[in-house]
Amino acid sequence: TAYEITTAEHGGTHLDAPRHFVEGRQTADQIPLEHLIGPAIVVRVSATAEKNSDYQISVKDLDAWEENYGPIPDGAIVLFDTGFAKYYPDRNRYMGTDERGPDAVAKLHFPGIHPDAARHLAGRGIHAVGIDTPSIDYGQSKKFMTHRILFERNIPGFENLANLDQLPEQGAFVVALPMKIEGGSGGPLRIVAFVPDGRTED
Amino acid sequence: TAYEITTAEHGGTHLDAPRHFVEGRQTADQIPLEHLIGPAIVVRVSATAEKNSDYQISVKDLDAWEENYGPIPDGAIVLFDTGFAKYYPDRNRYMGTDERGPDAVAKLHFPGIHPDAARHLAGRGIHAVGIDTPSIDYGQSKKFMTHRILFERNIPGFENLANLDQLPEQGAFVVALPMKIEGGSGGPLRIVAFVPDGRTED
C-alpha cells in the first residue's frame, strides 16, 4: 500500500536543502537519491505535543523508540508524527497565529526537534528527517540550531508532511522527490510511503 | 539500485495530465498514485529512431516486445527508449530545430508513439506512458491523436525522460511524482526507477 504523505494543498510540503542554512552544503539538486529514498521510522509524540504546542522532541523520545524497536538504523529517514497535520491548513491551530510577515514570527507556536535530539540523530547516521509541522525547529526557535546541526552533515529536512498517523513505527519505505531545482535551497516536495501489505489496513 | 530518470536540467522532465487535451479528464493533482507508481516495461526503438527522427512507434514494436517478454501486464507503466535522451539539451538534435515560437512547430522532428500503438496500449489496461523525447506524439504531429487517445482513458504521459537505457525491458519499478498542482494540466516531474540488484550493474 502506498500512502501519500504530501499535504493536500500544493506548495505546503517542501524540502529544506542543507544549503538553506549552511554554506557549502548540498543544494536541492545535489542531494543524492539515497538521502531521499529509504527505510523510514516514525517517532510519535502526538500525545505530548497535543498538550504543548511548543514541545521540542527530545533525546528521551528517541530513546523510547529505540527501547521498543531497537537502534535507529543507519541510513534511516526519521519522521516525526506530532499530530499537527490534522490542523493543516488552519494557520491559527497549525502555526499558532494566522498573521503573516516579520511581526508574526514571534507568535509562531508548533512543535519541532530539539537540537540535542538532532545531534543524537546525526550520530546515528540517518539520511533525512521529516515532520508534520512547518519547520524541523520549533515555532519559538530563534537560532534554528536543529537546521544547522543536521544541514552541516548534509541531512535534509522534509516539512509540512501529512498522514504520518497512517504509517507504522517501522517497516515503511519512503520515496521523497523534491523538484530538482538547480542551486535551490529547497522546493516543493512530493513524498510517498510504502507500507507492506497486511501491516496496516487499506 | 535506484536510477533517476529525470533529465539533468530542471523543468525538462514533465507530466502531461489527461486534462491537457481532454475536457473532464484528470488534472495533475487528480491522477491516482496507482497511475504514477508501478511496474515498468521498456520498449526500445533506438536503432530504428536513430535512422529516422520522424519515427512513430508502431503496434509491431509492441508485438515484438510481447513476443520476447509475454503480454504487456495490466497496470504497466510503458516507457519508450528512442535513444533521443542522449541529444538532450541540444535542441537541434533533440527536437529538430533550435528555433522557438509558432513558426518552429512545423520544423519539429523527433520520434513519438503512433496513434494505433496508443490504441493498442489503451486496450492492454496500462497505467501510464513515458518517452525520452519532448512529446508522446511525434514532432510532425498536427492532431496529437496519441495524447487524445490515451488521455481520454486517463492514461497520463511522462515526457523528456532520461537514462531509459539503464533499465531492463522488464522488472523495473517506477515512482513518478509530479508536482501536485491543483487543476494543473501538467507540471514538473521527478521520476525514479528501481531495478532489482544484480539485474544491472551499479
How would you describe the overall organization of this protein?
The mean pLDDT of chain A is 93. Helices cover 19% and strands 24% of the residues of chain A. The radius of gyration of chain A is 16 Å and the shape is globular. In chain A, the strands form two sheets. Chain A has a seven-stranded mixed beta barrel with strand order 2-8-7-5-3-9-10. A two-stranded parallel sheet of chain A has the order 4-6. The first copy, chain A, starts with a strand and ends in an 8-residue tail after the last strand. Chain A has helices at residues 46-51, 59-69, 91-95, 115-123, 145-152, and strands at 2-4, 14-16, 37-44, 56-57, 77-81, 112-113, 128-131, 157-159, 170-178, 186-194. Chain A has five helices and ten strands. The first copy, chain A, is an alpha/beta fold and 202 residues long. The A-B interface holds A 2, 4, 6, 9-10, 29, 33, 37, 175, 177-182, 188, 190-192 and B 2, 4, 6, 9-10, 29, 33, 37, 175, 177-182, 188, 190-192.
- Show the largest interface: A-B, 19 and 19 residues
Report the radius of gyration of chain A as a whole number of Å.
Answer: 16 Å
Low-pLDDT parts of chain A are: none
Structural class of chain A: alpha/beta
> Would you count the extended β strands of chain A for me?
10
Oligomer: homodimer
Total number of helices of chain A: 5
Mean pLDDT of chain A: 93
Note the gap between the termini of chain A.
Answer: 7 Å
Instruction: For the largest sheet of chain A, list the strands in their spatial order.
Output: 2-8-7-5-3-9-10
Global geometry of chain A: globular
Strand content of chain A: 15-25%
Order of helices and strands of chain A: EEEHEHEHEHEHEEE
**Biggest pleated-sheet summary of chain A:** 7 strands, mixed, barrel
Query: Percent range for helical residues of chain A?
Result: 10-25%
